[in-house]
Every structure is written in C-alpha cells, then in structure tokens.
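Reply to dn_fold:

You asked what the input looked like. This is it:
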Amino acid sequence: MSASPHGTDGHDIEPGDSTASRGPVGLRPAVEAPGDEAPGDAPVDAASPLRPSREPAPQPQRGLWLADLLGAKARLITAVLTTLFLLVTVDVFVQGPLTQLDKAIQGWDGEAEQPGLQDAAWVYDKMGQRSVLVPILLVVAGVFARRHRTWRPVVLAVVSFVALNVVVGAMKILIGRSETETGDPSVFDGGVIYPSGHSSNMVLTGGLIIYFFWRYAEDPPLRRLTVLVAVLTTLTCITSLYVGSHWLTDLVAGALVGGLLLQLVILFDRATVDFREVKERDGWSAGLKLLVTRALSWSHPHRQD
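and this is what came back:
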C-alpha cells in the first residue's frame, strides 16, 4: 500500500523538491511564511480571542511535475502492481495455471464442509461492499476535513469512489467473466465478477484511510492500521471463496486494481494541491491550464535528465 508504516506513501522526495522540514505529519514545512496557507484551507482569524488559531492542514510539496511527484518507491510499487495485474488477466484469458487453480479451489464447498460459519460469512461478506465502506471512508475524511478546515479529504474520498466504480465496473462488463456457479471461468460470457469489487474496495478504502492518517494526523498508528487493513482484506477474500461468490483470480486482480487506483488518487492529490491557489489568483483558465499542462508533461520542461 501506498502509506507505509515507516511514514511514507512511496512518493519519496527527489532532487528538486523543497528541503524544508517535513514536520511530524511529514509534509508541512517547519515555518510557514505569511500568506502561504494551503489551498482549500480557510484563513485563520488570529485576532479573535474567542477562536484559538489552528495550524493549517499540511500539504504536499508544491510546484512539482509528474515525474517529480512519483518517487522511486512509488514507481516501483506501481510497476509491480501493473505487471502482476497484467499477468493475472492474461492467465484468465488463456486459462493458464492460475485459472486451473481457480477451478480446483472452486471445487471446495466451504458452506457444506463448515456449515457453522455460514451465517457469519454472509454477514461479513457485506464488509467489502460500497454501502459499508463508503460511509466509513466519508466519516474519516469528514473528521480530518473539519479538524483542518479543508474539503480536500472529502474530495479525495469522492474521487476514489467514482474512479473505482468507473474502472472496476467497466472492466467487469468488458471482460464478462462467467459466474462461479457455472463452473466455467471463461471470459466474454456475460458475467460481471472480474475483477472483484470486494477486494478492490477494501484495498482502496483502507489504503486511503491510512493515507489520510499519514497526511493529517500527528504520530498516526500506521503499523497497526496497515495490519488491520491487510487482515480485513484477507478475510474478505477468504469469505468470498467460502461462499463461492468469486474465483480466486477475481479477488487477486481486484486487490491489485485497488492498489493501482490508490496510487492514482495520491498522485491526483499531489498534482492538484495548488489548483485552487492558481485559480483564485489568475482565474479558472489558469487553473485548468495548470492541470492540463501537468497531465500532458511527464517531466519538467526545464529539467535536464
């Protein structure tokens, strides 16, 4: 996952980034100059005795281009996730060894062999659904948004939800893998189970919550959060196999897609952090030009590699 227990999401600072102290949250400079408030944060009324001043929400380094926003560790994570997803997808299409493992695992009837777990399994199976995870994500985002007086966490939560629905939904329809009840894991057969929405939801939502804690909280329990998300995701996959709602490769591919989308959401966060500042200073056209320029330019035009 992007947010690691060591206090970095993989977007390492590279040459050319600001050398200001990262602070306890990992992103804000030690001393902020007047007028350097983060975009999206409300101004602090320091003169009001009834409302104590509150430190503005930390923001990622500004003025970076895409090549600078992705550190070496993040590029490696993205490359590994992409490669693994492509390998699993190709195997599903050609019905390779992973698909044969799918068939072998699907031959195990968990509900028949362990009927005592059936009720609990069907209840927990709901954990990977959007109706459960989205409210949890919005509550966490809302708490940090209120605490730091910025809508950015809520915006990121909504962006992740939309991206997941569009990407995973489109892949399910286009690939059309058969349901497990058919016993045939073929593609283009009208099914809508590849990749799994349950595992992708768990990875993306859990990873984004960890990212929120890493970015907005002081001394966050990243190790415990990472272990918790990993355990819950694993239980979700095992539960899906137990009730027979997914092939194993559906779940693996879903987790990989969730990880890739998490990387994209974090990249979106960093690439757009100064959009509001530019928009308010120079107008909508300048703000949109900034986003388009960054989207089309992988490296800084003045940077010599």
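The chain has a mean pLDDT of 78.
Hope that clears it up.
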